[in-house]
Amino acid sequence: MELILSLELGEEKHRSFARPKEAIREWSSTCSGREWIQIPETTTVKAHYLRLQHRIDQHVLCCFLQHIDIENEIAAGSPEAYTVLTTAAAFGHESVVKQLPEKGVDPDSRGGTRSEWFVGGRIALSSAAEKGYYGNAHILLDYGAVDLCPEDDDDLPPHISAAGNDHREIVALLLGTGVNVNRTHTSSGHTALSKAADEYADSVVQLLLERGADPNHQIYDGRTPLALAVIGGNVSLVKMLLDTGADPGSEINWRQYGEDETWTPLQFVAISSRNEAGAIVKLLFEYSAKCRDIDNISNHEVLFAAAKNVRAGVVRAFLEQGFCSRTEDDAHNRHRLLSSALESSGSREIICLLLEEYGFDVHFQDDEGRTALCWAAMVGNGFEVRLLLTKGADPLHEDKEGHNALFYAIQSANKQATQLLVEYIDVRILKKDYLDNPQVTTMLQEYPDIQKILQSHYWREVYPVPRFSNSIYLGDVLSRLP
């Protein structure tokens, strides 16, 4: 039977054709040269074209599907037909999703293997659930697409995919068909709850918890929904999980780089880059006596890690809880916390917090006799060094190896620290006790920029002669001074 199709694209009308194939060819050339649908003698359907939902005249498409010879053009059971159905489900074409099963296409079957068109191998329901097309999901369920958790599918089951994309209504629809809320995806270990927690889908998490989802389930790498929410910095989600039984003190065997390491939710906070990390720490303290135990060594390690990772909100939350608050008993921990902050760039807020609000002692020495100024000279910038000096740090203090802060500044080629330190040090004392050290002379030869800083300062302040030869080193010059 011949038919006449009148193609309309937007407001532009095109000529009529006697056969569907001719109409589709014109349709493809008008819409796009790269994304198209074509039915030549090979009866191949390039389903990628169906993405252009806003450019497809639905009336023409429905007319085409109504009159086409489905047995010959899109044979029921062919991989191409399933690809079209899957793509139509993914891009919201309810008319196509409805008509293809009516023409004999199995709604619960897949197309070819995954390819450049990315839809092969997936069931249509998975595509509809992922993209959030409730109408398409409902149509497919009405036609019997009930294989909700295919074990041989690399893609997430529909209810887990919908959960991860925050499609609450579709999740509720699929759970209503009898899907186990704690059903686990084989390869990833995800449940709907863990996927929703990982993707900040708060409304879906609430629904799943109301339906009895396990808040302590571990995915393939050992992390729980709570751990995922903590890393993501989702305060409301963390509280929701804690209120429904998530264990704030649980030990998780986190598998990374092929090795298992034991982590707690509190430790995950220390590596979270979210601004809300401090609020999450307070929640964990509120719900867990173990987390707020100031005598727990592992809790202190979390605090030090937070300082190294420049998590000021986390450090403040620990200090407010009482960690490192006992001036005498916690002297070593206080020094280590300050040193940890000094080891990282960008930790200005933490250093000010420790020195100005909590009065950390700048003179305390570690087991090697090093003070905070020594550490700042090694790894800090001008701000840290200047702040410590203004707080009374001694630039001439020597550790057990006989080295002072300037030595470590030179050794680390820290120009800012070197410049500040030489402004605070009495040059004659330094000349006598320090600059004649062969180690210093060797380092100055290796770092000419540092040598220039010292030469400029000491030559101007002590022995105002215009300049000296580069072959004469600073130690030799100062040794001649009276």
Automatic annotation (TrEMBL):
| Residue windows of the ANK repeats | 188-216, 221-253, 368-400
Q: Which UniProt keywords apply?
A: ANK repeat, Repeat
The protein's name in its UniProt record: Uncharacterized protein
Q: Does the keyword Nucleus apply?
A: no
Which Pfam families does this chain map to?
Ank_2 (PF12796)
Species source reads Aspergillus lentulus
Among InterPro entries, the record links this protein to: Ankyrin_rpt (IPR002110), Ankyrin_rpt-contain_sf (IPR036770)
